[in-house]
Amino acid sequence: MKRTETYGAKPFIKWVGGKTQLLDDIRKSLPKDLKERENMIYVEPFVGGGAVLFWILQEYPNITKAVINDINAELICTYRIIKNDVGSLISELSRMQAEYLPLSTDKRKEYFLARRSLFNSKQTADIQTAALFIFLNRTCFNGLYRVNSKGEFNVPHGKYSNPKICDEVTLKADSALLQKVEILCGDFAQTGKYAGQNVLYYFDPPYRPLTETSAFTSYAAGGFDDAEQTRLRDFCDEIAGNKSIFVASNSDPLNVDSEDKFFDTLYGMFNIKRVSAARMINSKSDGRGAISEIMISNVASAY
Question: Are 271 and 206 members of one domain?
Fold first, then answer.
């Protein structure tokens, strides 16, 4: 199967929980004849880093339109700038890269913290917001995106020797692909107006934490608790009733508690399978390994 790196367009940022490693499992959850269906629309209500978006639009050229959404305003601003003004973004990132890379480690940290403060001021023009978003992602610790209760990005500086802050080739390829993508910002439920026949949804919501220490990342102020997970299930039920296809990913509580059948019960009316993924399930390095994740769909097993 073709992976995202096979294509020109691919994620322009690192993103915790990115789905590159699960693309084959996602493909197997889709109808076998998907490539033969005409004028498909793709909708991704929690776009995040876009691994599935960039893959699926290149793997399935019969998708003539896509709609993406995320509640993270700075992320969505970045997608819009890449779509509409990638040249200015490349110029700004090139300048930041030229300023940052020659600096000593201490000076790099100072530069990073100054840009993080500027980003958190929320007083920047869209071009600068997008450039800062990518710069911070490429130079912060582990490529995390995490905000505090005030919505302020608070990830510390990373110590990469030669980070690629301006990936011009990828940004231009992404911009070309995004020309057929409508970009929304807000609650996932606003994408319900697109539901209908020949519409495919992929959901990658904030995962339900497996342990207290695995809940280290918040992508936006607020949270996504069990009530939100239930609201998402109701939304899936609604769009399925409107003849849309959907696939959804989430954590598998059975990894840590054999009695926790939250998703098995919640999505009992749909098809559920468990797939293998390499994830960090606690704060210690020995907590990284192959664990199962849930994949839910309203499609009978295609493969």
Answer: yes
